[in-house]
Amino acid sequence: MLQTGFNNSIEFAKKLDAEDQLRRFRSHFLIPCVKGREQIYFLGNSLGLQPRHTKEEINVILDQWASYGVEGFFLGPGRWLDFHEGLTRPLAEIVGAAPHEITVMNQLTVNLHLMLVSFYRPVGKRRKILCEAKAFPSDQYMLQTHVRHHGLDPDEVIIEVQPPKGEHVIREEDILQAIREHHDELALALFSGVNYYTGQVFDMRAVTDAAHEFGIPAGFDLAHAVGNISLELHNWNVDFACWCSYKYLNSGPGAVGAAFIHERYHRDKNIERFGGWWGHDKDARFRMEKEFMPIGTAEGWQLSTPSILLYAAHKAALDMFEEAGWDNLLTKQKLLTDYFWFTLDDINASTSRQVINLITPREERRRGCQVSMFMLNSGKEIFHELTRRGVMVDWREPNVVRAAPVPLYNSFEDVWTFGQIVKGIIQAT
Ligand SMILES: *Cc1c(COP(=O)(O)O)cnc(C)c1O
User: Fold this and answer.
1) At 403, which helix (H) or strand (E)?
2) If you take atom 1 of ligand 1, which residue's CA is the nearest one?
3) Rounded to the nearest whole angstrom, what is the distance from the C-alpha of residue 24 to the centroid of ligand 1?
4) What is the per-residue pLDDT for 3?
5) Protein residue with its CA nearest to atom 14 in ligand 1
6) What is the pLDDT of residues 32-76, one digit of tens each?
């Protein structure tokens, strides 16, 4: 059920903004302008905006480098050797894990490959991977090439769960059913947390439980889930997860990604992995000895010297999450998204022909802040007109407009204005 008592008026939107305990955070971000006016930026699901103090945090690293050279790893208040710990603490809260279950490294697609090295071990009949249809292209390419690297045929090994014919959203029951049906052939279940196209949230706990019943590991791509919805990776017993941090985590283009590995694997001697010196026992790292001894935490999956400049941008962004409080952000996310749905319903009710089909599941536990609008009429025209007027949303073929109001920097007035502009365009076309 959606929130009742909403009102589609500027006064009401302003009232919600006035009551919003987090409204000051908007001013901590740099909001791009169009013709001198701040954009209505609903693309936080694509590239989150820049926190004002990102530059400062990067400058701290540049200064440290200037002052100390390589000694920067060991000197200064934010010595680079321990920088990682300042990142895993806030991330642990956001993804529902212990800090030692997270390693901040590389980027998303790379980390997915690395996690498959550990968690996709095809043997005998058990070599198939269950995933969602229409996964993000990079995930599809990752799976295809990874499977080929094992000498297997992707068409034979990758099983995609489809939405029912004519529908957009995958039924949860169909995923569980597919796990039961293929249980003795599956080597891995890999789903996204939130599908990038429809905004559908998958029931990660149910998928994990169902897979574990048959001894199948379950992993998740959290690109569109992290910093957006509530996650409990540890308690759900998820085996591994990866994410990028340039979407809802606002850490900049090509920001450093991260992986979660459940603690039950950290000291498992039988688990395969690709190694590198940054995953080697910290006390022995600089002794440069021959035998690889992985750190007994998720950090044992690290390979290379961390990108401290990217760490700095990540820290600046995570500071915002810590300051705002993750629970507060989730509360605002729900209200902001409910209001968004309300205004979109109002548009559909007020136009003579339905123009927007909302394909994101309406049920609260099955959606985050992104709403995907399947445009039934004049989709491209509406999209271009929105962009011209400084309303930033994106377009996915064949005719889906995705928009994501995010609680850190979007306002209720943004949502109201978006609705008014869309209504105006529809009435004029
Ligand atoms: C954004 C996104 C990616 C991008 O991967 P990179 O390796 O960071 O370029 C991959 N998968 C999903 C599901 C995404 O949403």
Assistant:
1) strand 400-403
2) 223
3) 30
4) 53
5) 223
6) 998 899 999 999 999 999 999 999 999 999 999 999 999 999 998
For the Cβ of 191 lying below 6 angstroms from any atom of ligand 1, the answer is no
DSSP-assigned letters across all residues of 182-195: TTTTEEEEEEESB-
**Closest residue CA from atom 8 of ligand 1:** 108
pTM over 0.85: yes
| Segments in the chain below pLDDT 70 | 1-4
Report the chain's C-alpha Rg in angstroms. Answer: 23
Centre of ligand 1 from the C-alpha of residue 179, in Å: 25
Nearest ligand 1 atom, CA 257: 8
CA 294 to each of CA 191, 269, 277, 279: distance values in angstroms, whole numbers, following the listed order: 28, 10, 9, 5
What's the CA gap between 373 and 213, in Å, rounded?
Answer: 36
Encoding tokens for residue 304?
Answer: 């290379």
Residue the block writes with tokens 């992985």? 294
Same domain? For 283 and 357 the reply is no
- Indicate if ligand 1 lies below 6 Å from the C-beta of 192: yes
Q: Do 207 and 318 fall into the same domain? A: yes
Where is 310: in which H helix or E strand?
A: helix 308-324
Residue 275, both tokens = 């190694």
Q: Give dist(CA 40, CA 343) in Å, integer.
A: 15
Structural tokens at position 319: 């500071």
Give which of 348, 361, 346 is closest to 13, Cα–Cα.
Answer: 346
Q: Are residues 74 and 175 in the same domain?
A: yes
Domain span at residue 413 reads 10-30+326-428
C-beta 139 within 6 A of ligand 1: yes
